[in-house]
From TrEMBL:
InterPro entries: Cyt_c-like_dom, Cyt_c-like_dom_sf, Cytochrome_c_Peroxidase/MauG. It comes from Flagellimonas aequoris. Keywords: Heme, Iron, Metal-binding, Signal. The keyword Iron applies. The keyword Nuclease does not apply. PROSITE patterns: CYTC. The lineage of its organism: Bacteria, Pseudomonadati, Bacteroidota, Flavobacteriia, Flavobacteriales. Residues 347-454 form the Cytochrome c domain. This is Cytochrome c domain-containing protein. GO terms for molecular function: cytochrome-c peroxidase activity; electron transfer activity; heme binding; metal ion binding. Residues 1-19 form the signal peptide.
Length: 454
């Protein structure tokens, strides 16, 4: 295997409902804004679209890919790291204590309530399901209800392997059933997910240690140091696990919604959405596909990538490339969520918009309606007043202007790529000082309300 580690997405108001077994579909290419009607399994769906038209069949295919396709990455997560055995536990043919539903929820995994049969829902509600038994987790996997993790079962009905999907990091649930159990919210970053702790369950950490040229205790310290909602996407290409001050390097899982019209898809602008999907599917999720990026042939900058030929990954069959168009279409259909009524002060937000567009200079880069730069949306660390540590790990050496739509839905974990600012107030204070804006406290409060309203 020549691929290692995992993860990782104007105004487009598209909401295509996916109902299996389409009876009529229509691809529309006009760019004028209007309301169209699709007939899908005898259900009428009215969809308002601004700026572009997506093929509903391709969107439906992409939804399936996003939610359920592992791209063959079971070869890594089970074949190398043996995480299926960690889930089972020693009592069920694996190793260790196993992963119960209670443990899974504690490390941020989510359960799709709509995938649970009514009888299972009733049993959970009545307390007749043991949420502390790893065998229950296996049954939830059998129901395909664990968001982002796909279980595979052999002829005898035993769990034989697991793989991960895009939804693991870029979907959550609305907690409508209970904490961690509810309806899927695709595109929302799972800021509860403790990726490092999950990976640390492997009984083959030596593989990762050998790959990174460190010892197993170091691997475990790094994995357990990321924390909820964070991941070090560059680790498996550059081997850099810590910041210059010695703290563990990790970035917040980004949103995959509201990316219509956005040029570059990552915090440091590695590439557009299609590029990053290919990068993640091959090098982070460890799927079986093809991937090329000559920039990774720089041994000084990306030593791990060079050692493992990550700049030119070739697999046959290719289980990734043919799915990229559908995956892109689905991601482009994911509108940013609308702030709930009462979640911000409307009058203050209106005042904040005036400041955002004018004296506070926010709209210099966060240009409505896409709320990032129109075109080349990268800036130097000096321009935005922070260190260049993360930017220097990217081929661009710069930071992307993060799109702000749906900001209210991804506040957990802080702001900026690494969550360095715990609150919006801290972000505003940073720019107030960096650009000498001389905002009053009232101005700052109004700006906060506007940011919550976007």
């Amino acid at each position: 295997m020549n691929k290692y580690f995992y993860l990782r997405l104007s105004v487009l108001t598209v909401m295509f409902a996916y109902l299996s077994g389409c009876t009529k579909t229509e691809t529309i290419t006009e760019t004028v804004t209007e309301t169209i009607t699709e007939t899908v399994t005898d259900t009428i769906i009215e969809t308002t679209i601004d700026t572009l038209r997506l093929d509903p069949v391709l969107v439906a295919e992409g939804k399936e890919v996003f939610r359920h396709d592992t791209f063959g990455d079971e070869a890594f997560w089970s074949g190398v790291l043996h995480l299926d055995k960690a889930i089972l536990g020693a009592d069920n043919g694996g190793y260790g204590g196993g992963v119960s539903p209670a443990t899974a929820l504690a490390v941020g995994l989510k359960v799709d309530a709509e995938a649970l049969p009514d009888e299972v829902v009733s049993l959970i509600q009545s307390g007749d399901v043991d949420l502390n038994d790893p065998a229950t987790t296996v049954e939830l996997l059998r129901l395909n209800s664990v968001v982002g993790i796909k279980g595979n079962f052999d002829g005898a009905g035993d769990l034989s392997s697991i793989g991960i999907t895009c939804a693991l990091c870029h979907s959550t649930v609305d907690d409508s059933f209970s904490a961690g159990i509810g309806k899927r919210l695709d595109g929302h970053p799972n800021r509860d997910l403790n990726v490092g702790v999950i990976v640390s369950l492997t009984d083959n950490a030596q593989f990762l240690a050998d790959l990174l040229h460190v010892d197993v205790p170091t691997v475990n310290a790094v994995l357990n140091g990321w924390g909820p909602g964070k991941f070090n996407a560059g680790l498996m290409v550059d081997g850099i696990a810590t910041r210059p001050d010695g703290s563990i390097a990790a970035n917040l899982l980004p949103a995959a919604y509201g990316l219509q019209g956005v040029n570059l898809a990552t915090y440091t602008g590695w590439g557009d959405m299609v590029y990053w999907n290919a990068f993640v599917a091959n090098l982070e999720m460890h799927g079986q596909g093809n991937f090329t990026d000559a920039r990774l042939n720089d041994a000084g900058m990306f030593p791990i990538a060079v050692e493992n030929n990550f700049a030119n990954v070739v697999n046959s069959p290719d289980l990734i490339t043919g799915k990229l168009p559908a995956l892109q279409a689905y991601q482009l259909s994911l509108d940013a969520p609308t702030p709930p009524e009462g979640s911000y002060d409307v009058a203050a937000a209106e005042r904040g918009k005036v400041l955002f567009d004018g004296p506070a200079q926010c709209a210099t880069c966060h240009i409505a309606p896409i709320f990032t730069d129109a075109g080349f949306n990268l800036h130097t660390a000096e321009e935005i007043g922070i260190d260049d540590f993360e930017a220097s790990r990217s081929p661009t050496g710069m930071y992307r202007t993060t799109p702000l739509r749906g900001l209210f839905a991804r506040m957990k974990g802080g702001f900026y790529h690494d969550g360095r600012f715990a609150t919006l107030a801290e972000v505003i204070d940073h720019y107030d000082g960096h650009f000498d804006l001389q905002l009053s406290q009232g101005d700052k409060d109004d700006l906060q309300e506007y940011l919550k309203s976007i």
